[in-house]
Design brief:
This protein is an alpha+beta fold and about 300 residues long. The chain folds into four domains: about 100 residues, no CATH class; about 60 residues; about 80 residues, no CATH class; about 35 residues, no CATH class. The protein has four helices and 19 strands. The protein has a five-stranded antiparallel sheet with strand order 1-2-7-4-3, with no helix packed on it. The radius of gyration is 33 Å and the shape is flat.
């Protein structure tokens, strides 16, 4: 790079610690025009310890087709801090990933025209047959019968009315965006065993089941009993080994959860027996194995 700028430097004499090789990525939003600004992410791919205070040089951003769609450059910002010396170091959050707000300029547009469209496909963020049926019904009631048709759980086909097929397709989409639909929520429990996090949906119910959860503690202790004879006697030293085994079981109460128990009642019942998040994970898995948890249990 310095040679391109007309500076002649022996590369073997350089020993820099303030240059990092990074991978720069960005997402181009729909209908982005030439000159629009987008955010970029710079991630270190070398041995750099931190990108704090760095500046990204002019970087072309290419698509999968090999064409340049945007140019990025600018000062980077990181969401952490770090300091260290010969004796140790401290670090908060990641120092090797940086962000540049509005750091790239779109140089090539992705062709997309709405004018003249007769049909559109509406994709749901969370596929669900009930939600798709509700969306189709709401659109047909608001705009007109036969406009929306549920294809499957994740897509709807929209038939654009003839009076909007010209230059009013954007208005047609805006009318649909303004409609309010209550999505169907799935009864689901998500458990993260690595962090002990449990997320339980509102529609989760429990069938009639009894829950008992306690801890069993076993303690084994060895002691040496030495019997030594007096001085100037012909006696022998005797060593006796004594083993003491104790078993202690935590006293807990058995709680009964009636059929149709809600999530609030479940949490209050488990708290009453002193269940921790780790205990809650085990209890939920056992309830699911017993067939009493009326929800999907997902372990991540």
């Amino acid at each position: 790079m310095m040679e391109r700028m007309g500076i002649s430097v022996d590369k073997n004499a350089l020993n820099v610690k303030n240059i990092a090789a990074v991978m720069v990525t960005a997402n181009i939003p729909p209908f982005a025009r030439i000159g629009n600004k987008i955010d970029v992410i710079a991630s270190s791919i070398g041995d750099a310890k931190s990108l704090s205070g760095g500046t990204l040089l002019l970087t072309p951003l290419k698509g999968v087709d090999g064409k340049v769609y945007a140019l990025a450059q600018g000062a980077v910002t990181i969401g952490g801090a770090g300091a260290g010396g010969a004796g140790g170091s401290q670090q908060k959050n990641h120092l090797q990933v940086a962000r540049i707000a509005n750091g790239a300029t779109v140089e090539r547009e992705i062709p997309m025209r709405l004018d003249g469209k007769k049909t559109l496909t509406l994709s749901l963020l969370n596929p669900d047959f009930t939600t798709a049926a509700r969306v189709a019904e709401t659109i047909n009631v608001s705009i007109g019968e036969g406009v929306a048709e549920a294809v499957d759980s994740s897509a709807l086909q929209l038939n654009i009315p003839e009076d909007m097929q010209g230059n009013k397709v954007a208005e047609f989409i805006a009318d649909i965006e303004g409609l309010v639909v209550i999505p169907d929520t799935k009864a689901k429990v998500v458990v993260n065993e690595k962090t002990g996090t449990v997320i339980i949906g509102d529609n989760v119910t429990i069938s009639t089941v009894a829950v008992a959860h306690g801890n069993l503690t076993v303690t084994i202790k060895k002691e040496m009993d030495v019997s030594q004879p007096g001085p100037f006697t012909e006696g022998q030293t005797v060593v006796n080994e004594q083993t003491d085994v104790q078993m202690e079981e935590e006293k807990v109460n058995v709680i009964t959860l009636e059929g149709g128990t809600t999530i609030g009642e479940l949490v209050r019942g488990l708290n009453s027996i002193g269940a921790t998040p780790r205990d809650l994970i085990t209890i939920l898995q056992s309830i699911k194995a017993a067939g009493a948890l009326q929800a999907d249990l997902e372990i991540i």
